[in-house]
Specification:
By secondary structure, the protein is α+β, with helices and mostly antiparallel strands. It has five helices and three strands, in the order αβββαααα. Strands 1-2-3 form a three-stranded antiparallel beta sheet. A hairpin with a 6-residue loop joins β1 and β2. FE2/S2 (inorganic) cluster (FES) binds next to α2. FE2/S2 (inorganic) cluster binds next to α2.
């Protein structure tokens, strides 16, 4: 069994911002070709900031923990700041991941960029 951090366990056992926003300003998907897991993010933008963000995911415990962490990190960021949120930062927010689970944090980065692109395309 993998050893996981208290931050990881907290996000996995009590995921933040789960669900979807009705009529969102942007929708983004992230997917892992390695395992076919996915993350769907919906965002609400107000005054150039992420005012609300929700996630749904099909994936392993690391996917759930990092998806939750992605929403916490992204909330209240400006669009420009959110575009720069990296998988490394997401991984750090859950106290690190084992080598075989590092790809799971890519879902958050990918889905957030995709949601922002969707928002920018709708403007
Ligand atoms: S093993 Fe698929 S996202 Fe973690």
């Amino acid at each position: 069994m993998d050893l996981v951090s208290p931050e990881f366990l907290d996000h996995f056992m009590n995921p933040r911002n789960h669900g979807t926003i009705e009529d969102p300003d942007g929708t983004g998907m992230g997917g892992s070709p390695e395992c076919e897991d996915w993350l769907l993010l919906t965002i609400r933008i107000e005054d150039g900031r992420i005012a609300d963000i929700r996630f749904q995911c099909r994936g392993c415990s690391a996917a759930i923990a990092t998806s939750s962490a992605t929403t916490v990190l992204a909330k209240d960021l400006t669009i420009e700041e959110a575009e720069l949120l990296s998988a490394d930062e997401i991984e750090k927010a859950v106290g690190g991941l084992s080598e075989d689970k590092r790809h799971c944090s890519l879902l958050g980065e990918e889905a957030l960029k995709d949601a922002i692109n969707d928002y920018m395309g709708r403007k």
